[in-house]
Every structure is written in C-alpha cells, then in structure tokens.
Amino acid sequence: MPSVIITRDKFLDDLQGRTFSDVVKDTAQPFEAVLEFFNNDGKQRRMEESEIHHDRPPLAGVIRELESHPDIDKTLEEIETQRSKRLRQAIGVVVRMIMESRGWQKTGRKGSLGVRAGSDPSQPSHNTGGLAFWFIRAERYVLAKGMPYKSVRERCKKLGYAVPRQLHDKS
To answer: Which of 4, 34, 97, 166 is the most exposed place for a label (fewest CB within 10 A)?
Structure first.
C-alpha cells in the first residue's frame, strides 16, 4: 500500500485533529517535523508490522526513532508538561489518521510503551523502562478486514487450553 500523506490542512480537517490547532499553529512546536516523520512509507509499514507481527501498538514500531528526532525530543523534554502532552496527543491523532487510511480501526484498548517515573513537578514526565522514554501508552488497532494471524489468547481458546489469568484479566 502506498504511504498516506497527512498535511496540516488534512489534520485540521479531521474532527479530532482540529482540537489540536494550538499545536499546529504554535511555531515553537515541531509539528512539521512530526508530519515529515510519519509521511514515510517505511515508517507506516513498520507501524502496521508492529500490530501484525509483534502484537504491539503501531507507535511501538517507530517510537525510538521518533523520540530520537532532535526537534521532537527537545520539545518533549521541556518542563512545560502541558505543551509536551499536547504534542504527544497530536502525534496519537496523526497515527490514527494514518492507520485508518490504511484500513485499520481502533480497538479502544491501549498498549504499553513505557513505565512512568515518579512525578516531580520540576522535571519533565518521562519513563524509567519500556520502549519509549516520553510515551506511556498508545492506541491498539486491528485490520477492518480481519487480522491475518490469531493472537495467543484466541489460539488458546480455540484449542480449549486455559487462558493464563494475566491475559484473561486484561479483556
């Protein structure tokens, strides 16, 4: 599938995207860098592969590269937590727009990306473990036409095996 291109206008035309017009219009925010990052076929393919092959949120497939982008990282490490939170949320909207355009739909569940450090108002909020340094969790998706592979939980149920309690409790 060819890559999906998200522009500022397309983002602002989106019902949820328009609620982040402050991020788009703030010249100190690296929103153009975010769009440039995600408007890439290889990254979009890795986002899909993250769901299909690794049973992780799409953002998990590109998170380390995203957080390594100098402009994006600089903004996320600012002490102005509300501003960096808004950027992280806007990134989630960009991911959703791409995934939906590529035939995916939200599950309504979140997948873990990191383990948050204790909160200290004098420090930016970051993680102490996991894949991501700045992101805690991200939306999970399924292909609208159906997933090509069954999950471990589905395979256990089909074969009549007991589903481990930790998997069962998360449903």
So the answer is: 166
